[in-house]
Design goal:
With about 375 residues, the chain is α+β, with helices and mostly antiparallel strands. The chain folds into 3 domains: about 5-60, no CATH class; about 70-205, Transcriptional Co-activator pc4, Chain A (Roll); about 215-370, Aminopeptidase, CATH 3.40.630.30. The protein has helices spanning about 30-35, 55-60, 115-135, 190-210, 220-230, 245-250, 305-315, 330-340; strands at about 5, 15, 25, 25-30, 70-75, 80-90, 95-105, 105-115, 135-140, 150-155, 155-165, 170-175, 175, 180-185, 210-215, 260-265, 270-275, 285-295, 320-330, 345-355, 360-370. A hairpin with a 2-residue loop joins β16 and β17 (about 270-275).
Length: about 375
């Protein structure tokens, strides 16, 4: 009789019975999951397989932790509670408007709040100290007393970390008043570094990026960006680079409602975002079409999401109800951008374009900005 094979993770025999075990990378199948889905190797990718041993250990159905609309996610050790954060705006004074979502054992609320620049800096510095020493606390408070308090602190021992939150009555979400909630949950201390870096990156990107309505002086830089996509990609179905006069019309410089914005990273134009008319007939007046173009060296830096947030805010000011994006079927990066920002697929047209000798599909995505109208 052959000696049984030994799992390199748990050290116990692997019985080669399909009914009870599988051998995978010299491990039990469930040991493989523990090794690569629930350890420092890959701590950010929770496993959704129903047989994953994490679910068995905690004897609870995992909540939905990961949401592409929220760049920063702070979840509890048992993954039953989560606090999400995203930056909406950084103003000229350096103050930051954030949106916070709490999903914690029956509490499920969102709030919009302003944070002073110095409060954000102090919070990140305190997180670094907590990360290095395992002692102390990091406190983030809103500009108005009592509207927000997020506290990450050591407790019981240096190996135990928890998050406590309190949001007051004067916290608002999209112009509607909220109500006071408070609570807290323990955190995995090994995730402090990632939490700190995620929050710092989130705010840094937002603080560097600004938007200006496209004027005559922006056109050469905008055309240069668009030229790259015309000549090298299927992101646009143009095959000939437009003139400056044509570009002026494309970005709607003369239109009273549909406008475009140059995207600045500090002092240089890194892209532009367009809000265009979806259809010319009057019944479509509540719908706009949006597109984003970035310099290739600025792709993948979370700027596209900020551009969509900006143009959506402008569209709401102008009373638009729906935004539509028309995307080449091969432009998977753009498709992911719109999906991450709440757009849903509403149409798929097969082989309606030809560029570089290949037939191209077109997909349409839409987002309803206001369900109250």
């Amino acid at each position: 009789m052959h000696d049984p094979k030994i799992c390199i993770r748990c050290g116990t025999p692997v019985r080669l019975s399909k009914e009870k075990y599988e051998l995978y990378d010299r491990m039990h199948w469930i040991c493989y999951h523990l090794e690569f889905e629930h350890s420092d190797y890959d701590p950010d990718e929770p496993c959704d397989h129903p047989n994953c041993p994490w679910n068995r250990i905690h004897a609870t159905k995992k909540m939905k932790i990961w949401d592409p609309l929220w760049p920063t996610t702070i979840y509890s050790e048992d993954r039953r509670s989560v606090l999400r954060v995203k930056v909406l705006e950084v103003n000229a004074l350096g103050n930051t408007q954030i949106r916070v979502e709490v999903d914690d054992r029956g509490i499920n609320k969102q709030f919009d709040l302003w944070i002073k620049d110095e409060a954000w800096i102090t919070f990140n510095a305190a997180l670094l100290q907590l990360e290095e020493s395992g002692e102390g606390e990091a406190l983030l408070q809103g500009m108005d007393p009592g509207d927000l308090e997020i506290r990450i602190e050591a407790y019981d021992s240096v190996s135990s970390i928890r998050l406590k939150y309190s949001l007051g009555n004067n916290a608002w979400i999209e112009g509607k008043p909220g109500f006071a909630v408070s609570g807290g949950f323990p955190l995995d201390p090994t995730r402090l570094t990632q939490i700190r870096k995620s929050l710092a990156k989130l705010r840094q990107i937002a603080s560097n990026v600004t938007f200006q309505r496209i004027e005559e002086q922006h056109l050469p830089a905008i055309l240069d960006i668009y030229q790259y996509y015309v000549l090298n990609t299927t992101a646009t179905f143009h095959t000939v680079v437009p003139t400056l006069d044509e570009m002026r019309v494309m970005v709607g410089m003369e239109h009273p409602v549909y406008r475009s914005f140059a995207i600045y990273d500090e002092y240089q134009i890194c892209g532009y975002v367009v809000l265009d008319q979806h259809k010319k007939r009057e019944a479509y007046d509540g719908t706009g079409e949006v597109s984003v173009y970035l310099r290739p060296d600025f792709v993948g830096k979370s700027i596209g999401g900020l551009a969509l947030q900006h143009i959506e805010g402008y569209a709401r000011e102008k009373g638009l109800h729906v935004l539509v994006a028309t995307i080449s079927g091969k432009n998977t990066r753009s498709i992911r951008l719109f999906e991450r920002n709440g757009y849903t697929k509403c149409a798929h047209y097969k082989e309606v374009g030809v560029k570089f000798g290949q037939y191209l599909d077109v997909v349409a995505y839409q987002k309803i900005l206001d369900n109250n109208n």
